[in-house]
Amino acid sequence: MAGSGRAGTAGGAGGAGQVGRAGRAGWVSRAAGRLPRRTIRLRLTLLYGVLFLVSGAALLALTNLLVATNLPMQLRVISGSAAPGQLPPSMSALQTQAGQQRGVALGDLQVQSGIALAIMTVLSIGLGWVVAGRVLRPLRTITAAAQHTSASNLHERLALTGPDDELKELADTFDAFLARLEGAFDAQRQFVANASHELRTPLARQRTLIEVALADPQRSVASLHAACGRALAASEQQERLIDALLTLAHTQRGLRARVPIDLGAITREVLQARRDDAERAGVTLREDLGAAPSAGDPRLAERLAANLVGNAIRHNVPGGWVRASTQISAGRAVLTVANSGPAVPPEQVTRLFEPFQRLGENRVGSEGGTGLGLSIVKAVAAAHDAWVHARAMPGGGLEVRVHFPAAAATAAVPVAGSRMLPGSGDGVQAGHLAG
């Protein structure tokens, strides 16, 4: 029983100790929660106060040292009957009194200097708080703007005025970032609107064909068969568009792995597969394919070449030509596809690489095209760290060159005298445009 009582007593004491430690921990956490947040303004204010205190203390110490050095410690006899260096008996009391007065004067000077230093330190802290607030006011404006920025107010700008210092440079950089972000959002909205329009067109056509065929009171097997064939054609157009959209999304995520590829061999296979399309369009295919080794995704590289050749055949004239060549130039594997065709204004070349854009119109809406051919070319080039160059041909048509890194190259090197194609969303330089 006694052991049990001692154990209970020890247990109670231990429990009380734990409760006491928990209470102290809670009090410390609450006290820490009441401390002011260590903002830049607070740190600058404390820095100003400490610097003033240190410099003021050094100045007062130097002043006291100079006073103590120049204040005489003993009375000296200039003339009289006393021996040199000795005071008359009547002057001994004055010597003692002078020493006491010197000590009192130095003490008063130190006390008053300390009080003045303390007062000025407090004033300097207050002034430092005000000055730090005024200096950091543009930063608070930028922070508030960043906190309230959303997709609905990307058009707003800081337009900070004042001296051309680091804070104004930061505000101008933030405004430029908002402008780029607004452009990206606008491009995304336009892309979604165009994609919805292009997807709705074959769906509406397919629905109309089926409804007309079913509503015909004199329908027959032959008429229903023809309607189904046209509906399948509309479905194939929709399938091509969806496939193009998936390819575009896939290439914009970048490459997971790179394997050796030969642009010459890939382009040769693409030309062989497109000869029938060229013959039906009355277009002559010309080739000058040399070895052009690089590294990348073979399927995406084939899609790039196929889009360039298909675009050159589709946007051509009867009796026209398409020329494809591959070579090594300036240490890079270069694929060039040029074609005859309608005249292309140089200022319109850049727009052709945007989704759902073609010459003279905002949306494609043409048979056989999805409006994403050159957009996919730009995205595939970006994924391969390649540079895209396009220029309008003097007699009509377009020439597109894609500069891939050579097989031994590790980084893309920009070509002088070119303008970058806008719109590489993942931060990779999509290429350059020479118009």
How would you write the strand order of the largest sheet? 2-4-5-7-6
**Helix amount, in percent?**
55-70%
Question: What string gives the helices and strands in order?
Answer: HHHHHHEHHEEHEEHEEEE
How many strand units? 9
> What would you say the CATH architecture of the domain at 258-433 is?
2-Layer Sandwich
Please give the radius of gyration in angstroms: 42 Å
Distance separating the two termini? 102 Å
Q: Name the overall outline.
A: elongated
Salient structural properties:
57% helix; elongated; alpha+beta; 435 residues; two-stranded antiparallel ribbon
Structure description:
Helices cover 57% and strands 11% of the residues. The strands form three sheets. The chain has a five-stranded mixed sheet, with helices on one face. It has a domain at 258-433: 2-Layer Sandwich (Heat Shock Protein 90). It is α+β, with helices and mostly antiparallel strands and 435 residues long. It has helices spanning 2-34, 40-70, 92-135, 137-148, 166-215, 221-252, 263-273, 275-281, 298-314, 373-383, and strands at residues 259-262, 284-289, 293-296, 321-329, 332-339, 387-392, 398-405, 419-420, 432-433.
